[in-house]
């Protein structure tokens, strides 16, 4: 063997040419190996050191500390950090002022920091929990493979495989690298995980004449696929990241995921709040400076504290934490529906999806080949039931079950009986973890489907026969024949054959009609060919069945003209098919297809009702793809699949025009899937991409939300996704859409509540300072600026009395009505102009009633206090602040009831959310505590209120609810007028 120093192929281990276009002798020479002996152990060790292990390189794991710090990368958090810094600076300056009021610790700053830490911990723990759930779904992979080294077959770790190794394949093996085949025996490989092709591919070592797509490279094997039948040997041409799977993994590393719509919207809201805080603070300080002037350093410090108060009032400190908790609760509910979300911010995104791009094999279909139709000489019948469970009925074209004495049932039994005997597959019954029976296939899924069909109608007779000899299926022969001894009939021999109907038909001279065998006519042949074409046009894979009794022969040497040893060596017999495969009797044919999941059609219809377009993208045949898409309601009858070759010719506007209309794509490569997703995203769609195979991974990662299959999905795809379906069920996606929309609605509710409440706080501070002289707000001992509410009081409202109701709103359970509307436009904001109007309207009301309540307790204001409160003649700023503090809390509690809908009355479904009422009660108790517990009085600058003040606070704050209800009446009327106008226009 040539040493490594003479190797002429690339330093990466790849060949300079496409190995499928090279003769295997040339591949052997180029890779300096031996098909007869393989590499030597020493040479393999040298190559392993040079080319590295046969593994996919993933991104290095993110350290836990870095994951924790990533939780702080949020614009809302930045605002809170800025407020903390200002508050801390003000605390230092104030404590160093001579004669100033000392504060032992910076309470405001510490509280905000605590909120930030709590939010980060919650986000980190939830995402870690999701990662653990995904890891738990990881499937075991075959760690070793058989290779020829030093002239002997040995098993090695797949990681030790190197270019030039001779890979020895057998049925059931998972292929660990890419390779060029040079020897096969009935070799068939399932490549669905890479190409999307649902039917195992028959392999042949012949050199290809021209370059072909992965699915058509029949002389190649690929990493991650599996052998379903036969044996073979191949020269390993590439390993690790240089395999087809590795190239896809490299594409994933280059394609970084962007922000989710929710992240973008929250960043926008945070930016608006930040700008608003700065503008309001500058405006207030400027007005104060020009109207009153700053006469001392203390006035400057008071202005700085006012800025902190405005920042605290404007920024809902608990928003980030509440958002995290609401998303986490949504994640838990989705997990109950078998949808595991790996990233919190992605929970809402699926609810916004306008297009779901789905792989076919294993996602929309069961990835279990099934016999659906049988064509025998007397007519066509249908077999119900899907998958490998042998449960179903034989029916006619009207769906009526065919009786036992009907000739069609007899012929169907013959067809399936022959197919189950000329068969190398096995159907195995097992028990799952819950004790429920489940059926699994061993071998070629197509062959197993025939066994299942035979069992359904009682045609399985394998126990009566034992195999004597075999002429195996090859890609050139396109048929398989077996010689069986009938143990129930004195061991007489029979031939059973199956294969491509047009090929097998050439070896048949007779036909079995109604239990009688007669010569086959030319008309019979034409009818059979027409039936083959009809089944093919319906996207069925056809398989013909034939048989032949070998007279009274009890051994192979008794067959006329056999001239072979009576031992019946199958290998020797395979060299003489002309002896066995002649004068056969045509029994009929079956139509086989990978059937759609039974529940998917309803889910597709539900998604369509919700305004979501479902698109099928597969590597399968265009005819098969169009048939499945039509059956599921994804495509209209007659709609043809767009092929990968057609996509290659389209770019820009032409591509976008095609993807805007197409519902089914076939014969596509990974780069085509990525191209489709990008095109749909350019059209302002929120794209969800589902998939299970390695070929789906780039598009899954590129989509707005990638959905991987948890059972059949490859690890590459799972790690690329944002959500994993634990049950591989497309219907789970619709449930996730419903949950996502409900989460979005809940987010809008508590955003409306929090922002309108904070707007009320801002307006209270803003108007209270500017109108201090009008309402009698002053500090008797000084002439400086006096704020109506302290920063710590505003923090109390935001963190405690606001937080519980907002969180309860996030737990509202939405019904199916959320699927009765189209998905929101990607350009629409969570907080639109109308919602901002609602926020400002409520904020003004809250500020007005709060300041009015304070004026009741302040002499010299707008209201004649002596007429209403003779006992409150003395100036008491703390009492007035406590009253305003309490009224503001109460207005926000009433606002919580009103904020559950922008237009719907608060009195409709008022008591459906028990958590909200519990939260309101908790907030009331907390407010009473801060007013009547002495040490809390000191911390928050409050004093106990007389009993009548509670009635006044309740009456004034309820105005918020009543005026909001009046506004909703107007909005509902306007919506009805718009709907009526739109109906007339249509």
TrEMBL record:
Domain of life: Bacteria
Domain Cation-transporting P-type ATPase N-terminal: 18-92
Cell compartment(s), UniProt: Cell membrane
Protein's UniProt keywords contain Repeat: no
Keywords: ATP-binding, Cell membrane, Membrane, Metal-binding, Nucleotide-binding, Translocase, Transmembrane, Transmembrane helix
GO biological process, any: proton transmembrane transport
Any one GO MF annotation of this record: ATP binding
Membrane-topology descriptor: Multi-pass membrane protein
Main localization, broad class: membrane
Entry's family note: Belongs to the cation transport ATPase (P-type) (TC 3.A.3) family. Type IIA subfamily.
Protein name listed in UniProt: Haloacid dehalogenase
